[in-house]
Write a structure and sequence with these properties.
It is a single chain. This protein is an alpha+beta fold. It folds into 2 domains: 67 residues; 42 residues, no CATH class. The protein contains 3 helices and 4 strands. It has a 4-stranded mixed beta sheet. Strand 1 and strand 2 form a beta hairpin. It is elongated, with a radius of gyration of 44 Å.
Length: 130
């Protein structure tokens, strides 16, 4: 056999091995595709079962008698705003009935209508503030 014939034979061997390899890959892909199709069919069947169960549940809910509801009224008692005081230049604010608040001289007294306003001014609450 001359060189040209040997090259042709080697080329056909390589082509044959490539074809065999591709054929096995195609078979694997085909098997994977079949498994996927089976899974999809199972999922469709399960989805259909769920749909029927949900439909049955909706029908049961629709056929149940409507429950009567009771209205509950709640009375809200609004507490009067406490007055809070703090000394000018002080760090804490107090309820007006606190002994510390009563010791603040009128000219140094700062008044607040709410706890929030005192806190916003930078004062901290005394123990008397709840």
């Amino acid at each position: 056999m001359n060189q040209l014939e040997q090259n042709i034979v080697n080329s056909f061997r390589l082509a044959k091995s490539d074809i065999i390899r591709l054929k096995s890959e195609i078979i694997k892909l085909s098997q994977t595709q079949e498994k996927l199709v089976e899974s999809i069919e199972e999922m469709k069947a399960y989805e259909l079962k769920l749909y029927h169960k949900i439909r049955e549940f909706e029908i049961k809910l629709a056929s149940k008698p409507v429950l009567k509801t009771q209205t509950i009224t709640q009375t809200v008692v609004k507490r009067a705003n406490k007055d809070y005081v703090a000394p000018k230049g002080g760090k804490k604010f107090h309820v007006t009935s606190c002994p510390f608040a009563q010791n603040i001289k009128p000219k140094n007294k700062v008044s607040f209508k709410s706890k929030t306003k005192a806190l916003n001014e930078g004062y901290k609450p005394c123990k008397c503030v709840k």
